[in-house]
Amino acid sequence: MIRLFLVRHGITEWNHNGVYQGQLDVPLSPKGKLQITALRERLREEQFTVCYTSALSRAKESARIILEQHFCPTHETPDLNEMSYGRWEGLNRTQIMEQFPDSWAHFIADPTRNAAPGGETRRDLQRRVERVLDDINREYQEQDATILLVAHGGSLRAIVASFLNLGPSDVWKLRLDNASLTVIEVYEDGGVLSLFNDTAHLSLRKLPPDRQPPH
Fold first, then answer.
1. Are 33 and 105 in contact (CB under 8 A)?
2. Among the options 61, 82, 89, 120, which is catalytic?
């Protein structure tokens, strides 16, 4: 069995302010570091075989904090990066609707096929995260492995959706909070979602998760 521990990075100032980050390299906020530190304590006893992280600093820093008490190799891959929102990155929803009314309307009508100007579609995102899952399956299918994946709301939703047989248009029906933990147990005949969007570790530290739009 392969156990996948999916961790969304800690919060950033842009998350807090509802700004689309996409693939801009926005660092963790002080609160984000505290959130991930709380998760690190929760995961203290886990024995990770390997860690996969996106190439963006908010995910890499989250992985580094968690792995301060673990010894395992880390693979950095842009295939786990957040969905690209192109020219919308750095703007909030109101600004996007004002500055890009036509492309916003097309995106909302069918985000599976339509992208932000210069960005990706949800189908593009799904394809690249599935490359990571294929790599994991090839490398670890013959052994028991506990694998940490530290990434973003969009890329982690796409991973969950692939195991639940959800289409790209259904991905955003799943909410993943910053510093949340999701666990999937992978068997020969498929995956079992055994934990989803769990943030109990934040409550113990009196750090309630921020609720913000899924980007």
1. no
2. 82
Q: Which of 9, 152, 201, 215 is catalytic?
A: 9
pLDDT surpassing 70 at residue 103? yes
Q: Which helix (H) or strand (E) holds 62?
A: helix 57-66
What DSSP string runs through 126-169?
A: HHHHHHHHHHHHHHHTTS-EEEEEEE-HHHHHHHHHHHHT--GG
Q: What is the pLDDT, as a whole number, of residue 168?
A: 75
Q: Tell me the mean pLDDT in the region 106-114.
A: 91
| Beta-sheet pairing, 181-187 with 74-76 | unpaired
Q: What is the pLDDT of residue 214?
A: 47
Do residues 104 and 115 touch, judged by C-beta distance below 8 A? no
82 is catalytic: yes
Q: What distances in angstroms separate CA 121 from CA 29, 37, 40, 90, 168, one per listed residue? A: 28, 33, 33, 18, 9
Alpha carbons within 13 A on the beta-carbon side of 178? 29
* CB-side neighbour CA atoms (13 Å) of 124: 15
16 is catalytic: no
* Residues linked to residue 5 through DSSP beta bridges, in sequence order: 148, 183
pTM of the model: 0.92
Question: What are the strands, taking DSSP E only, across 54-127?
Answer: 74-76
Tokens of 134: 């294929």
Helix (H, G, I), strand (E, B) or coil at 99: helix
Cα 189 to its chain centre, rounded Å, is 24
In the chain, what are the domains?
Answer: 2-204 (3.40.50.1240)
